[in-house]
Amino acid sequence: MTTTFLRDCPDYDPRRLRLLVARLFHDAGLAIRGGTVLVKPSFVYPARPPHSLAVSTHPALVVAVAQALRDHGARRVVMAEDSLLGPSEVAFAAMGLNGELSGLAEILPLKDAERVSVEIDDPFVEERFVVPRIWLEADCYVSLPKLKVNLYTDVTLSVKNNFGLLLQDHRLPNHHHGIHRKIADLFRVRPPDFVVADSIVVGEGQGPMAADPVELGVLLAGADPLAVDVTACHLMGFDPGEIEHLRLLHEAGLGPLALDRIELEDPDLLTERRRTLRRPSTDLTPFEDTVQIACGDETCCPSGCKGMLRNSLDQWQAAGRLERLRGQTFVLGKPARLPPGADPRRTLVIGDCAVDHAGAGTFLPGCPVSPLSIVGALAKRGIVVPLKARKRDIARGYLEHAWRSLRGG
118 versus 381: which is more confidently predicted? Predict the structure, then answer.
């Protein structure tokens, strides 16, 4: 058994983080001298704190890890992530990290990464993935997840963080009742060699996009990703056995599921900082005073279109713009019953399961349909959710993408 580290860390002070992460690497005996290290943070909604405090890996921790890796002897540090707001470059621009990482790490926009196909033996659901070549070839892979609840997968931890290495077109298939099995298959491509989880402030409620912050004041880390994720579940008030992708990997012999099978550095700190986080809901009824929703009786996947619609509605509500949706109708799942009097000009038919009603309004095909597609369809009608990221950072990301394109990548 390798040690899972849990250390007091009250805030995101850059100097404290750098010293703490450097100490973690030393105590864990991380062997990276002279090697290439791939680092994967989580920028599900790339915006500078405080807007992303409960959602994305804090930029101060990203910089601290890059600096500590270089101090620890890494020859090359590659920081890779994608963005939901536009080209991959937006992720780092919106987080304010381009300048902070200069001289410490190479920024790799994942959409531009060279990719290779890998096969999975005896898969749960997905036998082939197209993944970044550097993920397979790096000497060390370090995962920097943000601990938060997730309405599609219950939690976002280190195993789930691998999901962001897939391109959008490859993420969405099986993003329904099969998502946990897909995550478990992807983990077997390459587990992290080391995890540094941002558990200083975690996210509860309507994660991943509309989570609310909860201060835990600890940094969680270790070389066994399942052990780290199981410990994280206990920090967040979850039973690890109820997280399907963790249970599948444990049953496949890839890590522990019980806390008594983990060598935890400071069990008392776990007991002291444990919280019961508010869990996400995919229930659509709270919005029925404002919008009409027809959800199929046979299929209306919480991890698919139902969750995607709830995610979108949460964003409007959080922005104080839900009233702008009054009179809208959403149809999803099968068999869905079209509400009487639904205005085709204000009706969205979401997902392949609802194709029988495609002519009743604007049809969004897919299995599932992403929240961005839902937001985009409504934006065409002038119903827009304001971005929390700074517009100039988004613009900078687009300019960097254009410059890279002109240079041929």
Answer: 118
In contact, 146 and 198? CB cutoff 8 Å: yes
Beta carbons of 86 and 39 less than 8 angstroms apart: no
User: Per residue in 115-157, pLDDT tens?
Assistant: 999 999 999 999 999 999 999 999 999 999 999 999 999 999 9
List where CATH 3.40.50.11440 sits in the chain. 3-273
Q: What is the pLDDT of residues 157-166, one digit of tens each?
A: 999 999 999 9
Helix (H) / strand (E) element for 392: namely helix 391-406
- Angle between helix 244-251 and 225-236 (nearest 10): 140
> Tens digits of per-residue pLDDT, 77-119?
999 998 776 667 788 888 889 889 999 999 998 988 999 999 9
Taking the C-alpha atoms of residue 64 and residue 107, their distance in angstroms, rounded to an integer, is 15
CB 218 within 8 A of CB 9: yes
DSSP string, 5-74: EEEE--S--HHHHHHHHHHHHHHHT---TTSEEEEEE--SS---TTTTTTTS--HHHHHHHHHHHHHTT-
Phi-psi region of 174 (alpha: psi -120 to 50; beta: other; left: phi over 0): left
SS3 297: coil
All residues at 6 or more sequence positions from 188 whose CB lies less than 8 Å from its CB, including other chains: 120, 252, 254
pTM here is 0.93
276-305 confidence digits (pLDDT tens): 999 999 999 999 999 999 999 899 999 999
**Is residue 149 classed as helix, strand or coil in its secondary structure?**
strand
Q: Residue 70: left if φ>0, alpha if ψ -120 to 50, beta else—which one?
A: alpha
Q: At what angle do helices 244-251 and 179-187 cross, to 10 degrees?
A: 50
Q: Which of 108, 89, 82, 102 is nearest to 395 (CA)?
A: 89
Higher pLDDT, 316 or 74: 74
How far is Cα of residue 393 from the mean position of the Cα atoms in its chain?
20
Per-position DSSP letters for 191-246, written without gaps between them:
--SEEEEEEEEEEEEETTTEEEEEE--EEEEES-HHHHHHHHHHHHT--GGG-HHH
Give the number of other CB atoms < 10 A from CB of residue 201.
Answer: 20
Looking at domain 3-273, its CATH architecture is 3-Layer(aba) Sandwich (3.40)
